[in-house]
Amino acid sequence: MGIMPVAEAATPAASSIDKEGFNIITSPLPLKLTTAPGRTVTIQLRMKNQGNQPEGIKVGLMKFGATGESGTPDLFNLTANDTYASWVHFSPSQFVAQPNVWDTITMTINVPKDAALGYYLAVTFSRAAQPGETGATNLNGSVATLVLLNVDTGHEKRALQIVSFSADHQLYEYLPANFKIRLHNGGDIYIAPAGNIFIARGNKTIDTIDFNDAGGSVLPNANRVFTVPWKNGFPVYQETLIHNKPQPDRHGQPKLHLKWDLGQASKLRIGHYTAKLLVVYNDGNQDVPLQASVSFWVLPWKLMLLALLILVALGFGVWTVGRSLMQGARSGVSRYRRPGSRRGR
Q1: Which fold has domain 160-233+268-302?
Q2: Residue 278 to residue 287: CA distance in whole angstroms
């Protein structure tokens, strides 16, 4: 369809540009709403046309779900079984967006008394059909704003578990080290966990990393993988950017370069480390902690080899100078005591 789904995380806005110049931005996203059965929820959505010409905009509705583990949602068309579509109304639902002007759209959700648990909606902003076009809507370059609606009845089941916690390597030459946290939501409502990763060397914690500070959610009966980098070191690999865009290598992976910031030289990482994960979620009554750990090594072998060569060179130099001094001292003593010389004659 060409709709750009927005990854479920606490980002302020999403934008889309297609080859025909359809350039829009929406805010806020995503929307996480909690209400009770029989209530009406009213929220404001904002959209700006960043193009140079007025655009006819149509506001639509789809649903989304998690068919993978990356957190990027998949959008689906509504079916006759998705009766909650009739709860949702937009005002206006179609309008002309002037260039560089924010338009406000009111989204009203009339939640019936028999509603319960979670509903996962995607509000689409797309180019409306122009006069003479046969299609109802041009979906190329459209943006979908995600809406996670929780109808709280007090009978929700919230159950989260850590499936795995791992590092992408057991041995690193330089940071970053990338940790993967796979979580499973065994409940019937979405969960937005939070927490930290504590980096320890021996018994001492040397660094702390926030986990899921963007507020991403795990949908019911689904897994989600979160990737968290530890890059607080010296030197450290960074993505190569040109015009603020990552550059791929020949394998299609982000091209990296080693950054040497001498101001961070005290953060040279060498040795064995342990990453301790603490994930916290609320089960409806209290915060529940989950823990896991993984160990890895950081060995900057090139720097270590260079240091060894320097030490060997210095040692050889000291030995050579010392040897020369010893030989010079022995030669002086030999000249002072010439064979056959006697005192007092």
Answers
A1: Immunoglobulin-like (2.60.40)
A2: 12
